[in-house]
Amino acid sequence: MTEAGLAGIVIALIGGPLMWFLRRFDRRNTEQHTQNLTHLEHTRDLVAGIDSKIDRVQEKVDTVDERLFRHVEGHDHRRVG
């Protein structure tokens, strides 16, 4: 067997499993992208249904966190300044 023939066999033995692995990895990546796209589209639909104004609160609110007050104060400072 010539050196070129031996090189071809070595390349096939290494390249074959490598190509199989890369193809399998690419297919899994495509499936993950499809799943993520489905989740993103669902989230987009949920966000599109949110009104910019809240007319009512459907659940009882027992406490309000201090962060809300800081958030509102931030809006007040921007409006005055």
What does this structure look like?
With 81 residues, the protein is mainly α. The chain is built from 2 helices and no strands. It has helices at 3-48, 66-80. It is rod-shaped, with a radius of gyration of 29 Å. The termini are far apart.
Summed up:
The protein has 81 residues and is an all-alpha fold. The protein has helices at residues 3-48, 66-80.
Strand count, sense and barrel status of the largest sheet are: none
* Estimated structural class: mainly alpha
Helix content: over 70%
Please give the alpha-carbon distance between the first and last residues: 85 Å
Low-confidence stretches: none
Strand count: 0
Number of continuous helical runs: 2
Q: What portion of the residues fall into strands of 2 or more residues? A: under 5%
What global shape is seen? rod-shaped
* Element order: H for helix, E for strand: HH
C-alpha Rg, in Å? 29 Å
Q: Determine the mean pLDDT.
A: 78
Keywords:
rod-shaped, 81 residues, mainly alpha
Q: Topology of this protein?
A:
Blueprint: H1 3-48, H2 66-80
